[in-house]
Amino acid sequence: MTTRPETVIAPAMDDDDYFRGVSAGMPEGSRRVIDGLAKVKSVYVRCDRDDALLTGFNRFLERYVATRQLPRQEAECFFLVGSSGAGKTFAIDRMLGEHDALRPVQGPYGLAPRYVSIKLKGYSHPRLVGTHIIREAGYGMVADMGRGEVWDRMAGILRSQGVFLVHVDEAQHLLKGNASKEERDELANAIKGVAIDTKWPVAFVFSGLPDVLKLPVGDQQVERRGHFVGFADVEMPGERDLVLKILSEMGEPVGIGSDHLKETDLPERLAFAARYRYARICQLVEGALQEALHWQRTKLTPGHFAVAFERRSLAYGKDDKNPFLAEHWRDLRQGSFLTVDDAPARSS
C-alpha cells in the first residue's frame, strides 16, 4: 500500500513575492511583456466624464455635510450608471480613493477609512450585503447578528469605525429581477433606515448598470432623492481625439507610438470594435500593446489590433469578421464574435 506524503503548510508569504515567483517561471519574453503591461495598466486616461463625475459627487457631498444634523425624511443617494464596459468601476474607485474629503484619518490603531466600497458579483441577500459592509469597515463581530439586526445596528457600527459613506458597485445585484413587493420593501427600509439615522446618517453611493435605478431606496420615486451621473458611449467622430489620447497615453510608458495612426481609420475601427465603450477601447488598446511588446515594436499597427481582437473572440482566421481587417467593417456586428457562425449584420 502506498502512503501519501503529509501536507506541508508553507509559512505565510507576501503576495508580491508569491507572484514574482510565478513571473519567474514564465519564459523570458513573457517576463519582459509582464513588466511592460504593468506600466500600461497603471495608466488612467482622464476625460470630461471624470470632471462630470467629480462635480456631481461634490454636489451630493455638499448636501450631505450641510444637512447631516438636520432631521431627515428621505434617503438621498448618489448613482453612477452606464452600460457594461463604460468604465464605471475604475472611474469611481479612482475618484473615491483620491478625494481629499475621504482620505483615511489617523486613529488609535492606525489609519481609519472614511468610506468603504464593496462589489457585488451576483444577487446577494440584503443581510449578506449588510454583513459585508460592516466587515469591510473593520468590525468583525457580526457572525451572530440576526437578519434585521445587521441593518439596524449598521449606522452605530459605522460611526464607531469612523465610516460615513458606503459605495456599492454592481448595485443592480441588490435586487432580484423577480423580487416581490415584500423583498423590495425590505431592502428599501434597510437602506433608508441607515441613511436617515438621527445620530450618524450614512451616505450611499451606488454604481452599476442602468437597472440600478430600479432600487427602491425610499418611499417616493427615485428621482426625488437621487443624484445622478451617467457614463454615455464614446461618440464618433466627436470624441475621436479621446480615442487618439487613449492610444497615445497608454503607449507612452512603454515607448510605443501611435501618432502615425491619426490619419487612418483605425480610431473609428477601434471605437466600433469596442461598442463605443470607454473601458473596452482601453482593453483593446492594452491587447494591441501586448502584441507590440511581444514583437518588440515601437509603433502600433492595425495588425496588432487585429490579433488582439482575435484573442478576445472567435474571429481567428475569419478576416471578414475582424473589424480591424474587414473591408466593410461597418456592416459587422459591434463587439466580439463569440460564436463561430455569426454572420455579418446587413446594413440598411
UniProtKB/TrEMBL annotation:
InterPro entries: AAA_22, P-loop_NTPase. Pfam families: AAA_22. It comes from the Bacteria. Residues 74-213 form the ORC1/DEAH AAA+ ATPase domain. This is ORC1/DEAH AAA+ ATPase domain-containing protein. It comes from Methylobacterium nonmethylotrophicum.
